[in-house]
Amino acid sequence: MGTANFDFEGEVVIVTGGSSGIGRATALAFGDAGATVIVADVRPDPKDLDAETPTHELIRDSWGEAHYVETDVSDAAEVESVVEAAGEHGGVDVMVNNAGLFRGGSITDLDVADLDAMLGVNVRGVLVGTQVAARDMIERDDPGAIVNTASISSSLAQYGQVGYDATKGAVRMVTRGAALDLAETGIRVNAVAPGQIATEFLEGWTEEAKQAATGDDEEGFLKDVPMGRAGVPDDVAPAVCYLASDAAGYTTGELLHVDGGWQVC
Prior knowledge:
By secondary structure, this protein is of the alpha/beta class. The protein has 7 helices and 7 strands. It has helices spanning 21-32, 55-62, 76-87, 112-139, 162-182, 207-213, 233-244; strands spanning 12-16, 36-41, 66-70, 94-97, 145-149, 188-194, 255-258. Strands 3-2-1-4-5-6-7 form a 7-stranded parallel β-sheet, sandwiched between helices. α1 (21-32) crosses α7 (233-244), α3 packs parallel to α4 (112-139) and α4 (112-139) runs parallel beside α5.
């Protein structure tokens, strides 16, 4: 099968939640494609079990320019500061609103504090990130691309995670609404919807999921995935790069599933 090669030489890319998991893989993919990458996260060190070097340092060592900005995306001022930091390198060309938070709980036992925390990161962080990036692009008259990390939970309810499902449903509608508002400016807004991805995002979804990603599914993690394996962050990163690239120049408001067929069964 053919391979895709992306070229983001000379462009500035912000990846929130870029220290670990899908965000780390995405930041590395943009670095490999020549971009200046700004990793915005609450911590520089990766949580991934098989990673030690901070994302921005790995990009510097392997490809080129990268920077880390400590960022809590639930704080609008800190998101604005990240975009201001991008201005030191010419302004943001691609904004990847990837940072996310999961707290479980059914409708009868979900803690309101957990819901508020998820709303702050998953919804306000994405909306404000989209907003401030778009304003920067409009002020510079340099339309770029915004890619949000949604989820299979954006469209499909799952047991015991009503709050998370609600926030990811909101990400889908922020993406669609922003795409509509910004279409005339030339700024495109899309989202990826990952399925079961073997990262440290969910407590306990670690070694078992990594084994399942190679086809060893003794614990039954993958009974609902038609392709028969968990995804890995490197499955998602190319989809983000595609949506940010000129190859998707006529695509906006789209929710691109990267889930091994989860949503079709």
